[in-house]
Amino acid sequence: MEKIYENAKTAVFWDIGSCDVPDGVDVDSITSNIRSALSNMKYFGPISFFAYGDTTVMKEEIVDEISRTIFLLQQVKGEGDRFHAFGAIAMAMFFWAKHNPGPANFLLISGNKDFSYALTQFRKSGCNVLLGHPKREASGPLTRKASAVWHSETLLAGGSPLPFSPKWKTSHKLKTFEYKYSDTSAASSFSSPKRP
């Protein structure tokens, strides 16, 4: 990890439909678990937490427990439809980056491979990408964009990332953070992929 990211802001985007709460993990402890996992990797900057899921089909107790944490829980209609979650999260990531210029870390907790293009754009803008993906659903296009990769079940429990693999990391130069896109162009750049 480059030192420029150690004290940078970090935004956590949790796709609950793709990465459910692991068995045996207390929802109330998830934010502290993620903080611990990041701190162990020497990420000490302030952290913003965002979660996305279809609250109409999630267990009521899970919704209540997440709502009591510092996660900002956003409703995404169409549980199990990766396109809905992709559109909501990709747009949120872009707007967070736009309003938080400077070196930044993005921690995406999702197994949705449609995020590959968006993560590429964030890396080109100088962002450091971190990834938590479900153990059952490893995605090469996603892991290759990340400087550190966890199984989401391990990350949400506060564990360590997977051993480093050179194929996950591609070299990139830090560029000046300049978001020159209008809100309209941003929406088109990060729109959901067309359905097959």
Automatic annotation (TrEMBL):
InterPro entries under this entry?
Answer: Marf1 (IPR024768), NYN (IPR021139)
GO molecular function ontology, one term from the record: RNA nuclease activity
Pull one GO CC term from this UniProt entry: peroxisome
* Coiled-coil features, chain-numbered ranges: none
Q: Which GO biological process categories is it annotated with? A: regulation of gene expression
Start and end residues of each NYN domain: 9-146
Q: What is this protein called?
A: NYN domain-containing protein
> Can you name the source organism?
Arabis nemorensis
